[in-house]
Amino acid sequence: MVFFKVMRLLFVAVFAAVLVSCSSSPSPDAQKAVSDAVASASASAASAPAPAAPAADPFLEKAAAEPGAVKTASGLIYKELKAGTGPSPKATDTVKVNYRGMLTDGTEFDSSYKSGMPISFGLNMVIPCWTEGVQKMKVGGKAQLTCPASIAYGANPPTSAIPPNATLVFQIELLGIGG
After folding, report:
1. Which residues sit opposite 146 in a β-bridge?
2. How many helices (H) and strands (E) does the chain have?
3. Residue range 153-171, pLDDT digits in tens
4. Which of 22, 28, 62, 129 has the highest count of CB atoms within 10 angstroms of its CB?
5. What is the pTM of this model?
6. pLDDT > 50? residue 49
């Protein structure tokens, strides 16, 4: 509502300024009208409330409150499901994993378990959520990564099975580093 009021006032100010500039000698009343319209628009803009912060995602809040869950500065929620005993990968490493990707309603959109074959990839070649989360794991471990859209696929998911700006949940088993 405030936005439209400010826009209306700005329109009036600009329109009045154009009228005044088209006149060879603007009258004092026209000059005052322009000045008043600009001042009113500026005051309305200055007093307009700041936009509201985005609503909190209840799914992310619930996931972060689960026992053992850790929320990082990026928004990743990391939960160790099984402790590993091997080394942890670096962002530049190639890792071998089994994984399952799900929407927040539990719908599975991808899985290496279904193909029966683990997958290997450069850890710096995947979504930021994976790069950050898998580095927290040790070989032999299993974890759940809850990824807000900002560190998952955002507005441009790679498949229609994932809605734009979706929070995603991955269960990942780190089988090895390298190769």
Report:
1. 77, 169
2. 5, 7
3. 999 999 999 999 999 999 9
4. 129
5. 0.70
6. yes
Mean per-residue pLDDT for 130-152?
Answer: 98
Token pair of 56, please? 């909190």
pLDDT digits (tens, 9 = 90+) for 98-121: 999 999 999 999 999 998 999 999
Examine residue 22 and state whether it is found in any structural domain, yes or no: yes
Is the model's pLDDT at 27 over the cut of 80?
no
Which residues, listed in sequence order, are joined to residue 119 by a DSSP beta bridge?
A: 97
The dihedral sign for the CA sequence 132, 138, 139, 143:
negative
CA angle 101/161/89 to nearest 5° reads 30
Catalytic residues: 99, 109-110, 127, 153, 170
Q: For residues 13 and 41, is the Cβ–Cβ distance under 8 A? A: yes
Total structural domains within the chain: 2
Q: Please report, for the domain that includes residue 95, its CATH number.
A: 3.10.50.40
Whether residue 53 is contained in a domain is answered as no
Task: Identify the domain containing residue 88 by its residue range.
Answer: 58-177
